[in-house]
Amino acid sequence: MDFRTEFKPLTVQPQEIEEKSFEMITEELGEHDYTEEQFKVVQRVIHASADFELGRSLVFHPDAIRAGIEAIRSGKPVVADVQMVQVGISKPRLAKYGGDVRVYISDADVMEEAKRLNTTRAIISIRKAAREADGAIYAIGNAPTALLELIRLVKEGEARPGLIVGVPVGFVSAAESKEELLKLDVPFITNIGRKGGSPVAVATVNALSLLAERQG
User: Fold this and answer.
1) Which domain holds residue 179?
2) Beta-carbon neighbour count of residue 155 at 10 Å?
3) Among 137, 170, 115, 21, which Cα is nearest to 70's?
4) pLDDT mean over 71-81
5) Is residue 54 part of a domain?
6) Is residue 206 part of a domain?
7) Contact 62, 185 (CB under 8 A)
8) Residue 199: in which H helix or E strand, if any?
9) Could you write out the DSSP letters of every residue in 88-101?
10) Strand, coil or helix: what is 140?
11) What is the pLDDT of residue 110?
12) Which of 99, 40, 103, 81 is CA-nearest to residue 198?
């Protein structure tokens, strides 16, 4: 059996593939109201998801880009809701400024407390993060309960995030948690609707770290 194909890739060079992808994204997205820096995030989200509807649904707090860059360049940690987000984030760019990526959801004390209180590990992990990671960027791509708990803690003055990247995916409370985030007067990046996920959270943070790096 012959498995050969007549299709030939335009290029096999990684940098050229990325550049061509961004050119196609810019062309296909067309006119938009994003700032130049916001569009860098939008591009990477679409690049990670191949979803233009998702890209168009992104919403930026006016201070989001500035706050994200400032947090990264100040060495603040990134708090991920799950390991999938932690794995995808470019750690060398954060480490350049003294930052790292933390995820608490599998910590023994978090699991024990969640079991004792009969609640989700995501909720307890956010409570722990609020105590240990002041000024962090929160990258939430999977757990709406984590985002809702973070919003509650912010309202009660128990959490002081530098930026919230709230893009959980799903059917139960995902869209609603983002609607609540839109009401919060802290820097955030989110999207409208059920779509989102780890790749979106990762792409957003990586875009911000690239912007931070380009500032010198």
Assistant:
1) 59-215
2) 14
3) 137
4) 98
5) no
6) yes
7) no
8) helix 198-214
9) HS-HHHHHTTT--E
10) strand
11) 98
12) 81
Q: Can you point out the beta strands (E) in 7-102?
A: 58-60, 78-80, 101-102
CB atoms within 10 A of CB 34: 16
| Sequence letter at residue 107 | D
- Assign residue 109 the CATH number of its domain: 3.40.50.10230
Give bridge partners of residue 60 from the DSSP assignment. 189
The total domain count for the chain is: 1
* pLDDT tens-digit map of 2-57: 556 665 665 666 778 888 998 999 999 999 999 999 999 999 999 999 999 999 99
Is 47 an annotated catalytic residue? yes
Tell me if 35 is assigned to some domain: no
Residue whose structure tokens are 């956010």:
126
d(CA 113, CA 62): 36
Give the chain's mean pLDDT.
94
Residue 79 neighbours by CB under 8 Å, 6+ apart? 101, 102, 103, 104, 126, 129, 133, 136, 137, 138, 139
Q: What is the pLDDT of residue 73?
A: 98
* Residue 130 tokens, joined: 């609020």
In a domain, 44, yes or no: no
Spot the catalytic one: 47, 56, 96, 152: 47
CA gap 110, 121 in Å, rounded: 6
Q: What DSSP state is assigned to residue 134?
A: T
Helix, strand, coil abundance in the chain, percent, nearest 5: 55, 10, 35
- Which tokens sit at 179? 């609607």
Question: For position 205, what pLDDT does the model report?
Answer: 98
Identify the pLDDT of residue 2.
54
